[in-house]
Amino acid sequence: MDDALLNSCTALYGTTVSEITALPGGHFALVYEYNLQGQDCILRIAPPSDEINLHSTRLVLEWLAFLGEHGGPVCPPIRSVQGNLVEALEYKGQTFLATACSKAPGVLAERIHPEEWSDELFQSLGRAIGSCHRIACLYAPPEASRRPTWEQVGTCFNPLEDLEGSEAFILEKRRLILEAIAGLPVSPECYGLAHLDLHFGNFFVDTARSQITLFDFDDCAYGWYVMDLAMLLFDVLVVYGGSEREQFGERFLEHLLRGYLSQKSLGAASAAQFPLFLKLLEIGLYIMLYRTDYPEESDGWAGKFMPGRQQRVESDIPYVDLDFESILKKAASLR
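RE: above sequence
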């Protein structure tokens, strides 16, 4: 990062270059930590991008501010010294976006092996998501400030950039899933502003307090709330290394839903939505990964997910064989 640009960014957030520390892990933006009046904060500087612009970033931060004001489990955005949620800096003919937020307590969830998670932590995760979805039901921004719907943005559910040129059989499988999804009910109770990228790399866990803090809402869009729950189940079953996959998935989902239902209701029809969104994710991630090079024996995410995946998709094998209706009923009876 150019010193002049970094100086300008830090000044906008009441700090200096000498007082910030670069953090690893930023896949796109540059991320720094600093302390402001005793509070640990995160400064994020995003380079020019066609996907992340001033308008979309402002909409995301307005939603995060609303979540924070209503007690949502998020890192509330910190306004600049000029009172803005996002600052656009013009530098050498390009626009960089600077934002800041409070730092979340705990460790990144993906650093905790699934087998080390307790039932209480799974329930805490469910409560965090349920809280966000409950608050989403209250969120009614003007039309110009609304985030897009899920089929308008590129996510694992909807890999826009990778669809063209994909194998014909996989596109046909996806078309059939989309037809079924198109018939799902759309009501404020089941459909609203969701995270849509809620995997184990996008929340922190404070194990001492069983506290979950969600972050990285860049892909948030209007969709079915079940999509967030389905993605978590999907992800945890990829990284879970045990032999009893279905049993672990049932335990995870039961406690996730117990926590969720303590914050927000989930209609009985939602049980039938899980297989649809799990399959949509499976197809979407296959499309994103099948042309990439990865060592099949790798312990990485793709190395765990891809072996045998084409055959499973072609044969219409469920992503996981669970009785979702029974699990939802049990979770509801125990909360």
